[in-house]
Amino acid sequence: xxxxxxxxxxxxxxxxxxxxxxxxxxxxxxxxxxxxxxxxxxxxxxxxxxxxxxxxxxxxxxxxxxxxxxxxxxxxxxxxxxxxxxxxxxxxxxxxxxxxxxxxxxxxxxxxxxxxxxxxxxxxxxxxxxxxxxxxxxxxxxxxxxxxxxxxxxxxxxxxxxxxxxxxxxxxxxxxxxxxxxxxxxxxxxxx
Length: 192
What we know:
alpha+beta, Peptide Deformylase, 5-stranded antiparallel beta sheet, two-stranded antiparallel ribbon, about 30% helix, globular
């Protein structure tokens, strides 16, 4: 099942998500979240982005696509899938600025989002088993971005104040459009 992705302006994106306590349906939910993420051509998707207040996200590591080949379906390029419930970052090291975008802010990017270069994350997998991952570089950035979603934080809020204000000003029209679309979707969902 492909879910509609909640856009900037939807209140669920600003709330701290509740811990996952019942793991009985998580495997199926994660499959649907992955399907939704592939459809949107993303690398990660948090439960609040599909309207669920749960501390859960999915992410994938893709293999590089060979140059000059036709664009393959993303599913064929997956090297590793992560299903992450109740994550906690227990260690951070280094600081790098990098480019980030978001499926809830389609088409908007910032090149200067600061994130830890290396992290350690304790979490539970789709069956509730405790796991620990050490990540660096791009996947560390992806995990930090998705964990922020679980805390109601959007990537541009990580920018230093002057850059955040410049991002908001430069993208004002798009943000207003997202807010209107978010309200329309919420109205549609409440009636359906």
